[in-house]
Amino acid sequence: MTSNNSVATGELSLYHTTTCWFCGKVRQAICDLGIEIELHDIAASSSRRQELVEGGGKAQVPCLRIAQPDGRVEWRYESADICRYLSARFT
Ligand SMILES: N[C@@H](CCC(=O)N[C@@H](CS)C(=O)NCC(=O)O)C(=O)O
């Protein structure tokens, strides 16, 4: 637990932009679930954008990067799928 009582989820990070409505929906879900996920703004950082394209295959946001315990990395696109995944894991 962190100081503001939320769950820190180090193996997850969200590639997003501040202007994308779909990203806002996912950020709101993260907030509602009381979890903390590192955010990477691909509009503000070309290296983060490149990471997303190289890892996930396209520059679409939002995308949740999930580092599995066995070392595999999953790149999950689609805001509804991301919200469903987070809700199933953290509710
Ligand atoms: N169906 C997707 C739509 C996401 C979407 O359209 N994202 C836009 C930004 S608002 C985007 O990344 N467009 C660039 C691209 O698809 O390459 C979702 O719900 O996540």
Describe the structure.
The chain has a 4-stranded mixed β-sheet. Helix 1 packs parallel to helix 3. It contains 3 helices and 4 strands. The protein has one domain (7-90): Glutaredoxin (3-Layer(aba) Sandwich). The protein is an alpha+beta fold. A hairpin with a 5-residue loop joins strand 3 (63-67) and strand 4. Glutathione binds at residues 20-22, 58-62, 78-80. Residues 20-22, 58-62, 78-80 line the site of glutathione.
Give me the CATH fold name. Answer: Glutaredoxin
Q: How many H/I helical runs?
A: 3
Oligomer: single chain
Distance between the termini: 15 Å
- The number of domains: 1
Q: What is the residue-averaged pLDDT?
A: 93
Main sheet, how many strands, which sense, barrel?
A: 4 strands, mixed
CATH architecture: 3-Layer(aba) Sandwich
Broad shape: globular
Can I get a quick summary?
This protein is an alpha+beta fold and 91 residues long. It has helices at residues 21-33, 46-56, 79-90, and strands at residues 7-16, 35-41, 63-67, 73-77. The chain has a single domain, classed as Glutaredoxin, CATH 3.40.30.
